[in-house]
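Intended use. Records like the one below are meant for learning the mapping from a protein sequence to its folded structure. Do not use them to infer anything beyond what is encoded.
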Amino acid sequence: SAPALIFDADVNTGIYHPAADTIAVSTQGNERLRVTADGKINLNESAGAVGSKLNIFNGSDNQNILGITGADESTEYAAMGIQAGNAVITGGGIGSTSTGIVFRTAEGGTEVERVRFSASGNVGIGLSSPESALSVAGTFPDSIANSGVHMGTLSSNYAAMQFNHTAGGFIDFS
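Structure written out for the chain above:
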């Protein structure tokens, strides 16, 4: 990965042209960044095997391969990686910082929190502050078209769980 455009006498660091319509950057004689003809960005000698627009090759499993920080790099972060054959998503905190993970979706252009994994490990669906291992909030519509397990409130007086879509399939918790 010898660069064609180098800086001062540092002959193994610079920019070069490894293929048609492709540009790359190397440091210490190793390719670190490649922009391909179809606009894909490959980092750390990635061959772009997964086919996504951004590909990162780490060379070994690590729980935090891709990291994102907010206002600073000293408290909380989000990271993604691969460890022992599993995809890992981390809401990380440094020192005494507690960090959870939030999943949001947009309906009609408005983003709304749907699921939260709290820093303590509790999961909330429809709740931003889950107080137990699994907390679910929501209401039952007038009719439910699908079979399965449905949880929510039938009124302000009690919660219910429906195990199938038949009459009498409710367990009421009042």
